[in-house]
What we know:
There is one protein chain. The chain is of the alpha+beta class. It has helices spanning 16-28, 38-41, 65-84; strands spanning 3-7, 10-14, 33-35, 42-47, 50-60, 87-99. Strands 3, 4, 5 and 6 form a 4-stranded mixed sheet that branches. A two-stranded antiparallel ribbon has the order 1-2. Strand 1 (3-7) and strand 2 (10-14) form a beta hairpin.
Amino acid sequence: MTYVLRNNDGSITLADAALTHIVVQSAESVDGARVRRARRRVAVDLDGKSARVELELTVAYGKVLPDVAQDVQVRVADALTQMCGVDVSAVDVTIEELDG
């Protein structure tokens, strides 16, 4: 899926790979979080100016899982809002495995 931003000067198209990259980089900026197989395990659904994200994580052993997941939710939502100008309705995180 691509996302198109239109303004008086024309349009800007964001490819799915770019949106996925934003999600992965922001999620992995959280200490102890790693996105599992980003190409198959990250979904960004855009409906107008609203986005919903689903991603699967590997979390470092010993981390407090709900805290890591919540930090990922906040960072992903903030990144998409700031970089793409979309409102994020939800960031659904699934912790699939522990690392270490």
